[in-house]
Amino acid sequence: MSRFAWVAAAGLTALLGVTAPGPSPPPPQPPPQLDDADVQRAVDRLDGVVESAMKRTGAPGVAVAVVHDGKVLHLKGYGVRKAGEEGAVDADTVFQLASLSKPIASTVVSGAVGVEGWTKPVAPNVPDFRLKDQWVTSHVTVADLFSHRSGLPDHAGDLLEDLGYNRAYILSHLRYEPLAPFRASYAYTNFGLTAAAQAVADAKGVSWEKLAADTLYKPAGMDSTSSLFEDYANAANRAWGHVKTEGDTWKAEFVRDPDAQSPAGGVSSTARDMAVWLQLQLADGKLDGKQIIDAEALQRTHWPESIANPPHAPAARTGFYGLGWNVSYDDEGRLRLSHTGAFALGAHTNVTMLPGEQLGIVVLSNTSPVGVADAVALDFFDIAQTGEISRDWIPLVDALYQQQEDAGRSKTDYAHPPSDAAPAKAADTYTGTFESDYYGRAQVVADEDGALTLRLGPKPQTYRLTHYDGDTFSFPTAGENAVGLTGVTFTPDQKSFTVEYLDTNGLGTFTRTGGASR
Predict the structure, then answer these.
(1) Helix (H, G, I), strand (E, B), or coil: what is residue 458?
(2) Nearest 10 degrees: CA dihedral of 329, 334, 337, 340?
(3) Can you tell me the mean pLDDT for 269-275?
(4) Which of 60, 48, 104 lies closest to 84, judged by CA?
(5) Lowest-confidence range among 75-84, 228-237, 404-413?
(6) Which of 266, 287, 416, 451 has an alpha carbon within 20 to 30 A of 124's alpha carbon?
(7) 206, 145, 210: which is closest to 171 by C-alpha?
């Protein structure tokens, strides 16, 4: 999952208007307010809603599933799997789910370890997992990490993934991240949740990917669902991820491999399989009369655990996070469960359920987030409730994604150095090998013309440095969490340098360990 995950974590509660490890269950649900005709009205308008959203945004492909009272009322694909090609999206097209993987992961954990498993400490089962505070390390539970209340900072570990580090390295280096107060703060962390899921799998003596398949996918008959990137990449009927180009068209330019954070963002699936999962969720873990997932453990994932979005006005509602779910309550007092998934490199998904109405929708799309998946779900529930769409959701949701994207960009305009910029020193004064406890080895090398290149990551990714001012250079960031141009500033003695976008949590400084490199 990308930097857009804060939208998913808030569950769009702000647009719709910390607890201890053992919270009280939610209040009883009010009686259902939607009848079959209300739901059918919304289903009948879905084609128009989806097609309008695709026309407005240019999104190449979408798939939608709707479940009500245990029945699949709508299961359909729209558009194409890859822009410029003829392969159509259908109910069996495989999409990357991004952070919609999280409520699927909590379903797997519920089935694997039951209610008591949520309260188990993580550290004993993942030997290299430690946090900065030893007491927190020994007490943090599976539930703490699934509800993002461990104290880890927002998106801790994601930049290591962008540099090419694997899951084991990332989990073993979370110990360097600063911590906010334990169980008294909320910050969305893909690798915190991944650590918890890994602990459950390790305790069972299997990989997470096998645990997910054996616990949920195979028993539920979700035959096209996988937690392995390889299965998505090899699927003949798969949706390609698209990003918007400068010409405002969609291009299948990147392929996102999320295996490092598979429990948090690495599931791929189809609208058909997701309809089955919706049926299971709304039936307390049952399918065709067979109990696939323990009902009590599954219900536990729907409880509020952390305050994700405090109210910002006297009459505003609080947004909560459960165990892999956004948890909120609507104007009618009904429990609303949702999650958005988003890859900047080309995926946008949404699941929303009203358990009291036995109603849920899943929307899958093959573009970076522009509001389509969320808007289709919001339109659907608007029409079911009142017969009308309450507002134009696409620009509102898209603005949230754009706001988050802009927030990560540097305040320095590296594309335009100051007119009185100081010259750089000789290239060989900057070259050499450098180390960071967190990010590992870095090398700065110079070519024959004196141009500098920065190498980062286990299989070094190269970034050409452009001089900005004095000992400061810049380079264009890349990957899921790219933020445009970022700065690289050397100390006056060139014994260390700091990479601006890697330094959000104070970990972006590399210290010289060797001599010059050419």
Answers:
(1) coil
(2) -60
(3) 98
(4) 60
(5) 404-413
(6) 266
(7) 145
pLDDT tens profile 44-81: 999 999 999 999 999 999 999 999 999 999 999 999 99
CA–CA distance, 89 with 491 (Å, rounded to integer): 53
Q: Helix count (H) and strand count (E) of the chain?
A: 17, 23
DSSP of 272-317, one letter per residue?
Answer: HHHHHHHHHHHTTTEETTEE-S-HHHHHHTTS--EEEE--SSTTPP
Comparing CA positions, the residue from 499, 496, 489, 446 lying closest to residue 468 is 489
Residue 428 in tokens: 């060989």
Confidence check: pLDDT of 517 > 90: no
Nearest to 259 by CA among 164, 342, 176, 177: 164
Q: Indicate the pTM of the whole model.
A: 0.94
The tokens for 300 are 């536990």
What's the chain's length in residues? 518
Output the CA–CA distances (angstroms, integers) from residue 257 to 74, 92, 169, 493, in the order listed: 30, 21, 16, 39
Distance CA 13, CA 216 (A): 29
User: Given the DSSP bridges, would you call strands 335-343 and 440-446 parallel, antiparallel or unpaired?
Assistant: unpaired
Residues 100, 175, 105: CA angle, nearest 5 degrees: 20
Estimate the share of the chain in helix, then strand, then coil, as percent rounded to the nearest 5: 35, 25, 45
- Reported in sequence order, the residue ranges of 310-395 that DSSP labels E, i.e. its strands, are 319-321, 326-329, 335-343, 347-354, 359-365
Beta carbons of 191 and 170 less than 8 angstroms apart: yes
Nearest to 10 by CA among 139, 184, 187: 187
* HSE-CB for 50 with a 13 A CA cutoff: 24
The pair of structure tokens assigned to 235 is: 């699927």
Confidence of residue 4 (pLDDT cuts 50, 70, 90): low
Rounded CA gap, 95 and 256, in Å? 12
Q: Please give the torsion angle defined by the CA atoms of residues 384, 292, 217 and 107, in that order, rounded to the nearest 10 degrees.
A: 60
H helix runs in 174-289, sequence order: 190-204, 208-212, 218-220, 229-234, 262-265, 271-282
